[in-house]
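seq as requested:
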Amino acid sequence: MIAVSISAKAQVSLGIKGGVNFSKISTDNIKESSLTGYQAGLFARVGGSVYFQPELYLSGTGGKFESTENNQNFSGKVRFTNLNVPLLIGKSFGEKDLNFRVMGGPIYTYQLDKSGSLSDNFNGAIDNFNKSNIGYQVGAGIDIGAITADLRYEGGLTKVSDSFAKRQNLWALSIGFKIF
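struct tokens:
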């Protein structure tokens, strides 16, 4: 009976979202830089001022690498297409049609595809990236009516590669629309 009354008070929103991200893969002894990518998918929000927000979206991420050894320059770039599943807990402040939010939680990322252009010195490194990774997301957002916008930081908890790359980190900016 208590569970029924709690679920009856729970607010549920479903929506679509899309945006841009700036990802970088940290490495040892190699200079890395960011790549611009995308994200597009679905979200649900369950609850009131404290809410649970599971999401499912595709993203394009990756990183650039540069190194100089024995007066020889090496460079490379790798891109991933991923399926992402963040499970976020958040707190909203404000009214229904205008509120600010903070959120955080774990994210599971599964690599669907990868492509790259790496110098010969990174021989075979493109094949050494892990398909599954675990990370976390923290961020803030705003809802204005049915429009929602988020800015998030994503940090890697597992290595994306056992050879030279360590963890992928990114900043993401997304805009969404609550269908209901």
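The first helix runs from residue 2 to 9.
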